[in-house]
């Protein structure tokens, strides 16, 4: 991005900018010491945003059959998690900046509608790819083109001259020639200005260009805008064919899968329109649209077969399958948490990194209290449901950089990088309080609640361990102490 454009952006008073409440939520979402009550208090300063959070937590997109409807912002956040709250706070507050006239008003509205559709499409693509943390994909999909909105705001006359070219294929070179920078770079600059996480800045910067082969999350975000364009039926049949082909290239989805994805996006559109306060016109005959996409893909596949594309697709499918199997080998099949193999690799790496850079490191052993009684009284199917819901709730309260692994049975282990003993204890006690009042299953119509015992050990703050295994043993010993002293508590090594 040229310095002239950077200076214009820096001086522009009307850039799309989250209000103070949303910026506060951004800061809290990245603070390991922050709790849900602090976030709820921040959101409560904006009554409209608080009402929107409650409505979303009770919407079909997020509601859970095993939970009672949340009635307070803090309980809504316990259901959604901080990353989802960040997405919703940004989406709601930025939507208010999309209003008003000007010579690019229509283009601005169109871009925002596309961004909302892309947010949901990114989440759905993540499900197809088997990725965790759908709210983070949703946030990346929502903000991937925020740079285009900034360019419209700061240089509207020049933007009106921009030839957008075919839909879905970003005019990055034409933007650079006209503005001295492109919307991907401007979007990454904005994300850095808002202090959004580094991974999100990088995703915004690369969502148009990739490479997508070795980054499934980037492929989901990079494909989500194409899905939105297909749903909106933007372009001629040949342009739609190009969109579908590029979507297949980025994500590996084929015609029938793309049609199914569009069907799911259509089902979500009314709810999205309400949640993000944006008009999403019905694309017409949805079945005809899906059939059209499938026909376009069939034509393209016939051409590719003639050009030897079958061998290429088989190779790509084998590569994707290999990646899937590699990821599956790292995951516990019941809960989706990482397994002990992945845990040992990450723990050793984090331990060495903490030693090298002098950063704190905390780990926690968690054991579900009286879990055998649940299996004996209600059966193993209920027990499995409890483990799955416990894992989901626990993951929702952790940072993206934290690792959650199932150690065995009802035992779990959390690796908290760059987190000292005091912050780790605060986090675990907050999670314990939330878990203890969150039903893990419904049995004969009645909620089933659980607690857990936790043993915490930390490297730093005067505690030094010779190896990662010694740190692990200290956490295990602390867990034994927590269970011995009555369970439902967090304990640290004695002495």
Question: What features would you describe in this structure?
Answer:
- This is diguanylate cyclase.
- The chain has 23 helices and seven strands.
- By secondary structure, the protein is of the alpha+beta class.
- The strands form two sheets. A five-stranded mixed sheet has the order 2-3-1-6-7, with helices on both faces. A two-stranded antiparallel ribbon has the order 4-5.
- A hairpin with a 2-residue loop joins strand 2 and strand 3.
- Helix 12 runs antiparallel to helix 13.
- The mean pLDDT is 79.
Features:
globular, 7 strands, EC 2.7.7.65, alpha+beta, two-stranded antiparallel ribbon, single chain, Rev_trsase/Diguanyl_cyclase
Blueprint (SSEs and pairs):
Elements: H1 3-11, H2 20-29, H3 36-44, H4 47-57, H5 73-80, H6 82-95, H7 105-129, H8 134-143, H9 146-154, H10 156-160, H11 172-179, H12 183-193, H13 198-206, H14 216-231, H15 237-251, H16 255-275, H17 286-306, H18 309-330, H19 340-357, E1 361-368, H20 371-378, H21 380-396, E2 403-408, E3 411-417, H22 421-436, E4 441-443, E5 446-448, E6 452-459, H23 468-484, E7 490-491
Parallel strand pairs: 6-7
Antiparallel strand pairs: 1-3, 1-6, 2-3, 4-5
Helix pairs in contact: 2-3, 2-6, 3-5, 4-5, 4-6, 6-8, 7-8, 7-9, 7-14, 7-16, 8-14, 9-12, 12-13, 14-15, 15-17, 16-17, 20-21
Domain HDOD: 15-210
Protein name: diguanylate cyclase
Organism: Luteimonas kalidii
């Amino acid at each position: 991005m040229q310095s002239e454009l950077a200076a214009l952006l820096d001086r522009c008073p009307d850039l799309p900018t989250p209000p103070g409440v949303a910026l506060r939520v951004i800061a809290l979402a990245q603070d390991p010491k922050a709790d849900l009550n602090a976030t709820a208090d921040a959101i409560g300063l904006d009554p409209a945003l608080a009402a929107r959070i409650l409505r979303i937590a009770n919407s079909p997109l997020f509601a859970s059959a095993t939970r009672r409807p949340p009635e307070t912002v803090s309980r809504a956040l316990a259901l959604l998690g901080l990353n989802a709250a960040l997405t919703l706070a940004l989406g709601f507050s930025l939507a208010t900046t999309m209003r008003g006239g000007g010579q690019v008003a229509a283009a601005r509205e169109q871009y925002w509608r596309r961004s909302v559709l892309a947010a949901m499409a990114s989440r759905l693509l993540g499900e197809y790819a088997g990725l965790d943390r759908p709210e983070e994909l949703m946030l990346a999909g929502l903000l991937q083109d925020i740079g285009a909105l900034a360019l419209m705001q700061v240089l509207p006359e020049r933007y009106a001259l921009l030839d957008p070219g075919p839909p879905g294929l970003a005019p990055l070179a034409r933007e650079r020639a006209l503005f001295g920078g492109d919307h991907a770079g401007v979007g990454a600059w904005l994300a850095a200005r808002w202090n959004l996480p580094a991974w999100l800045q990088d995703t915004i910067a690369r969502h148009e260009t990739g490479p997508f082969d070795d980054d499934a999350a980037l492929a989901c975000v990079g494909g989500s805008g194409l899905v939105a364009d297909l749903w909106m039926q933007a372009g001629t049949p040949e342009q739609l064919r190009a969109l579908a082909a590029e979507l297949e290239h980025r994500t590996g989805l084929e015609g029938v899968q793309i049609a199914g994805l569009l069907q799911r996006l259509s089902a979500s559109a009314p709810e999205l329109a309400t949640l993000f306060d944006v008009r999403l016109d019905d694309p017409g005959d949805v079945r005809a649209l899906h059939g059209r996409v499938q026909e376009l893909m069939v034509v393209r596949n016939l051409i590719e077969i003639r050009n030897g594309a079958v061998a290429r697709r088989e190779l790509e499918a084998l590569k994707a399958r290999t990646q899937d199997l590699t990821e599956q080998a790292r995951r516990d099949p019941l809960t989706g948490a990482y397994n002990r193999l992945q845990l040992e690799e990450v723990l050793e790496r984090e331990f060495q990194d903490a030693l090298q850079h002098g950063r704190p490191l905390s780990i926690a052993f968690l054991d579900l209290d009286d879990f055998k009684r649940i299996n004996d009284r209600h059966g193993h199917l209920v027990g499995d449901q409890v483990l799955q819901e416990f894992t989901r709730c626990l993951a929702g309260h952790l940072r993206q950089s934290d690792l959650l692994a199932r150690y065995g049975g009802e035992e779990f282990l959390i690796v908290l990088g760059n987190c000292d003993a005091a912050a780790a204890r605060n986090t675990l006690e907050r999670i314990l309080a939330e878990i203890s009042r969150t039903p893990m299953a419904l049995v004969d119509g009645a909620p089933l609640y659980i607690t857990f015992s936790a043993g915490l050990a930390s490297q730093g703050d005067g505690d030094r361990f010779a190896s990662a295994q010694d740190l692990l043993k200290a956490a295990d010993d602390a867990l034994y102490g927590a269970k011995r002293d009555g369970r439902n508590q967090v304990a640290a090594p004695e002495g």
